[in-house]
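Supplementary material to the annual report.
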Amino acid sequence: MSTANAGAPRGGIDLGGTKIQAVVVDSGHAVLGEARLPTPTEGGPEAVTAAMGAAITEAAHRAGIETDALAGVGVGSPGDVDSRAGTVTSARNLPGWEGEFALGAALEQALGTRTHLGNDVQVATDAEFELGAGRPYRSLLGVFWGTGVGGGIVLNGHPWTGRGAGGEIGHIVVRIGGERCGCGRRGCMEAYAGRASMERRARQAHKKGEKTDLFKIMEERGRTRLMSGVWDRALKRKDPLATRLVDEAIEALGAGVASVQNVLDVEAIVLGGGLGVRLGEPYAERIALAMQPHLFDDLHPPAMHVAALGDLGGAIGAALLARAASVRAV
Amino acid sequence: MSTANAGAPRGGIDLGGTKIQAVVVDSGHAVLGEARLPTPTEGGPEAVTAAMGAAITEAAHRAGIETDALAGVGVGSPGDVDSRAGTVTSARNLPGWEGEFALGAALEQALGTRTHLGNDVQVATDAEFELGAGRPYRSLLGVFWGTGVGGGIVLNGHPWTGRGAGGEIGHIVVRIGGERCGCGRRGCMEAYAGRASMERRARQAHKKGEKTDLFKIMEERGRTRLMSGVWDRALKRKDPLATRLVDEAIEALGAGVASVQNVLDVEAIVLGGGLGVRLGEPYAERIALAMQPHLFDDLHPPAMHVAALGDLGGAIGAALLARAASVRAV
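Predicted assembly:
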């Protein structure tokens, strides 16, 4: 826990609802080792912490070191993250994690190195800002199109998270009184564009007899949920239900992200998340097109990029937290 | 144009689509004199500039001085304001002001003192932040509910205007494919909540035979448009059409302002603008209530206040521009 090893490799963990991605990077942010484990679906925060420890240990081994030789480990977490206290509260897409859990202390004990917590979406945005598609810009909106729709904001080179709950772009209202969202509210952008909502709507339509190969593809791939790869395959096969639901998702993203742009007027948007990274450039262009009719300053649309760090962006961004903290310690 | 008179009274002009409000303030921001003139409806930028000059001259006379004794005059203007160049472009709610006009130079010549241009909504927000209802806070959203719906943003004590076109909260989409907005787009918050849209919808409904006293009240008050005072009177009389349209405006403001809050997570919202100031506290509370079901962090809603500087906020905020510039010049 000294600052002597500030130049040593650092760890980063992206804690997601379905998977835990860990990386070990060198001082130039190059990935020395990585590992991915499924997020436990039971056992509460303790089981999740154990899996996080296993993932970063495996990534460290692949980099040829033990975790206690890391300069630190950063974590990008869902829920309410208190980075000073090292706690995570109300991580509702994780098993039995409604209350407060001292994730930082638990991981430090398991790993023998300092840990640093941050918001999952914000660290992924910071990574794109510093190392990825956002490098040319000073202001940025990260749009993470995955299970939900998350947003990360960089203004004037600094993250903006408000009082701690900012960036919830998935829950801006695009249709008053519209579809029910996973959050319980109505008409949120995420109610149309989040993968979880899209799956819920696909199951309802399928049940009503609408034709689709989505669930056949899901089974062929040995999945129980409509992961990004399933949607991608179905779209390539021109599946009518998948096409309709993705069209509606893009319509919602167009209106919602344009609304955020009308407020923030950032230089660039970086599209990440499971669906964003999987569907990539052609869909980033479709979202930009769908935004255009709603942009107030339509002569100056923001630049639109797909996240350059791809699936590893969240974990690499988490590793930045450990770097920043090491620098501060010096 | 020296800095010797930095402690001298300053002028501020709020250039609106219907009226020009001018103030002269002392170094403690107390109003020494004020004047209001209607905005010319023809004659282009030159006629508007002449009226602005007349308004600030009258305000200065009421303060017992000539305009060339002012330390400077700030202007809060609609349209695209280039404060460095001293130009205003595309002020579309002003007569014949589509192109670029060197407002700063024209006013300086007329007044014999330096002028400083800013965005009308942003200077009004800055005034509330520094002198009004926003004083206790570091982050703020100004919601100006008037002819349109404008937004001013203060984050970490500093205005945020993006690349210059930020804060356009009136044009966030609250209903995809919804009502046509004055901007030509569909479903904007302003299409439901802007006074101009509300008037357009009232005229359509009246034409179709819907019962209302709105236009009778308008005529009684010698008006040709449904100004804020007309709506206020009609609401007090429980006019059914006025009630319905204001209910819909509040529904749209609830969804739209909550959406902005979900993104920015500011500490407080200050409600200004013609309708906001006229309808006041009970309607600020109704908007806060309408926001609640759409707030992601619904346990921590932002504080909600009516603009403390009322109708003069824009002009007092404009005068701040002259102060800031004087300070910089020293």
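The mean pLDDT of chain A is 94.
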